[in-house]
Amino acid sequence: MCDKFYEKGLNFECQRCSFCCGHSPGFVYLSERDLRTLCNHFKMTIRQFVEKYCRWADYYYGTKVLALLEQKNYDCILWDKGCSAYEARPVQCSTYPFWSWMIADEETWNECAKDCPGMNKGKVWPVEEIEKNKEAYVNNIPLHKEEVEELMKKEEENLK
User: Fold this and answer.
1) Pairing between strand 10-12 and 64-68?
2) Rounded distance, CA 29 to CA 138, Å?
3) Which of 31, 53, 98, 130 has its CA 20 to 30 A from that of 9?
4) pLDDT digits (tens, 9 = 90+) for 106-116
5) What's the DSSP call for residue 62?
6) What share of the chain is helix, strand, coil (3-state, %, to 5)?
7) Residues 121, 109: Cα–Cα separation, whole Å
């Protein structure tokens, strides 16, 4: 038996408001899977994609990780009246709002729902799908700067 507040599922249906894609500062961290998927989508090398769409974000223990840039209004760099990489969007984006910390308890879920008009509305997501999304989010580890530099180096060697 599930002892989570969402054992009977949670309602969520995106309302296309784009609030989760911008409007306030934040980070979309990129894992290796995310980076490779986005590079393939845009038909760019890792270096090209990183230089055009990314920034280094402060992370735990003084490290830096790869994150998407934001526009001046805080919208995601990939946002332009819709996600320009929707089919290839990062795991962080595709698993929203079933992030581990957002579904930790009902109070947190409902607090987050104040900013997201799709939460507590529409389709019922079964506990299995919620857990699958949570695990994907938790296991999607952002790339550290040294890892990105190594990926660029290897890619450039393979292109020679």
Assistant:
1) unpaired
2) 12
3) 31
4) 999 999 999 99
5) G
6) 40, 15, 40
7) 13
